[in-house]
Amino acid sequence: MVFLVLMIGVLNICLGYVLAVHVGYGPPGLLEAWDALGGRAEPVSNREVGQFVDEMNALSLDAMLDDEVEDDELFDEIDLEAYEDDDDDVADLLNPNSPENWNLNEKYIETSILKLNLAMIKSGNRATEIDTRLRACQGESDKETIHDCCVKLKEDCESYLTEQSEAAEKFSERVGEMGELAGLGAEIEMGNLEQSAQVETTLSNLQHMDFEADLEAANHRLLAEINMLRVARHRKRDNQEEAFLAMAKYENRMDVIVEQLYNDPLTNLRNRIGLEVTLWQWWKQKRHESRQMNAVLFDIDGFGKINEDYGSLVGDRILYNFADLLREKVSSADLLGRYAGQRFMVIVLDVGPRTATKTAETIRQGLEGITFINAKLEEIQATVSAGLTEVKPEDTVEILFERLEKTLEEAKRDGANRSFFHDGDEMTLVESPNLGAETREIQV
Fold it and tell me: Where residue 197 falls among pLDDT bands split at 50, 70, 90?
């Protein structure tokens, strides 16, 4: 009996030591060395996340709702410990359903905002097809292709204006219901008008362009118009997501947002809505007070220039591959999502700031080591900047986001392709050794 008690005591001491090193509170000699930060074990399901998402995408929402797929079939391939018992249906959270199939409840005013986003998603898909076709024939532009792309771009603009007008009209009818948020409603309406003005300007330009005198010049002009539409569309999308969340918070309805709206269809990650809803749940449960958290905000450097030079299809594929890199390098227990545009957020759980910093640096150096190759065999390099901070018990989500954004801005100002850490008082450059990132090529 005495021997058994001694054995249990020794086992507890060993487990305590391992846990201290794991969360960043090990002996000083270990904490001061980067090698000690590698003590965080790779989760067995890290590389299975992508496979799991692919399997989830093959399942229809109707099938899940009809219980045609057993729960064990959905979850036996991945550890979903992070969401525990507070998420009723993790499968829906991870499964990005086609926006066209969203069953939006007309009860809430945000529905009108989301329908405006649907119109932008459809327009963006059509514009990407035209952009890709134009780039494929650059240097050998022919009259038929240029004419056909011009016609399709006009049709896209006209179709978008029709869909946007219908959604905007419904939104205008609901502005009176917004009470103290009427000012926000007015801003959204102004954004709708600005977006419509850009589309109408493109239509006017297409009407007066000479597409026969110089076919290559016409090709470049069409690409420039598509790019201006893309920039305006993305800016409006991000603004509307922020407005959506502002309304849901104001009316205390963060817990009733339909789960189909949590995900980004391109990257298979949570979108801004999904990130904020999850953090809202965590803060409500006071997880930020009981568990150690560190946050990282990534921004792919010069991404607008990549889209402009190589097209939105290549840009989208780079975003997808960066999301895949994030899935490889973070634990399946961590929170991961697309914050906005080319920005991504990771909330690293149950480790100290040093370990979280090493994770961020591994990701930054990992992207730096990738060479993207497009269909024309052009080599494209992409880098990413990062802002990091430890989540404090007294932080609100808004304060956390503000600190992350300021830290990321500092990394950009300092030259990009680097990480800065905010300790709550000041920001400092992260100086890390070469972590041995794999050098590889990826076709996009």
Answer: confident
